[in-house]
Amino acid sequence: MRFLIVILLAGWHAGPAQAEPIQNPVAVFSGLDKITGRIITFDVLVNETVQFGALQVTPRNCHTRPPTEPAQTLSFVEIDEITLSNKIQRIFSGWMFAASPGLNAVEHPVYDVWLTDCKTALPETGSGSGTDQS
Description:
The protein is 9% helix and 45% strand. It is mainly beta. A five-stranded antiparallel β-sheet has the order 9-10-2-3-11, with no helix packed on it. A four-stranded antiparallel β-sheet has the order 4-5-7-8, with no helix packed on it. The protein is elongated and about 50 Å long.
């Protein structure tokens, strides 16, 4: 049994080296307003909050991999809802994966939000400005 554990540990350490993830300062999200049917794309600085409808979206980081590795874009995101009684309620806190938007997308009765990308800088038009994609 001890021999098997040593072999497993040796194999675990012998895997290919992976480069450190690239820390990006901007997370890119898409949001669907189910009432109007409009899809909005919006950029958010890491640790900043942007409001999308009744939701407040705050990415805590946004990682990508170097071009020499398989693509993987992920972000740890916190999303709060401003309720009708004007209280803030956390509805999501977790990792979002751009390659699997359905895995951890926020599905709200009125709004859906999902990560689409990470960027190294905001567009020159300013932060949090959404572009209509409908």
